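Entry:
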Amino acid sequence: MTIIRKDFVKPAFDRSVKETLTKKGENMSSMILKGKIHKFGSNVNTDEIIPPRYLHSPNPEFAKYCFRDIDRDFADRKQAGDIIVAQDNFGWGSSREYASMALKAAGISAVIAASFSRLFFRNSINLGLPVLESQQAAEYIESGDEVEIELNNGIIRNITKGESYPFQKYPEFMQKIIAAGGLLNYIKK
């Protein structure tokens, strides 16, 4: 059954579920992400995620410069665990993984979009950043909404609006990479 919007199917979920993150090496069966939404449009490129002039900065400082050229106040508003939602073709441009690194440094727990650049998608998975494709979520979720993501069930719940949206679950090997915090951590196990 596909759960799309509240006017079709009212989602049933326990609002008492707290944010839980898997510990290194655990299965994603218990992985739930919860955060506030920051929404962007289509065709956000890697140079807009982290402008190249800041690439000389140490990795942890990337957080100060995320989206600097398209949302100057993002660094001040974002909080650890927040989630990005965008429209089509998020992360196109450079093949460098700095864009995904910058989002992780900023404390972003996941990115939801209608579609991603394949390179950005792969870089994000390799760094342990969940990236989820969902046309419905990209269309109906708004900035400021509170969202809960069940990575193991393929469900995004908009707590603010009482809606749910499906996404394609990761295959088991990708779940293990995300749960380990990225490909290098997974290989070290």
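DSSP finds seven helices and seven strands in the chain.
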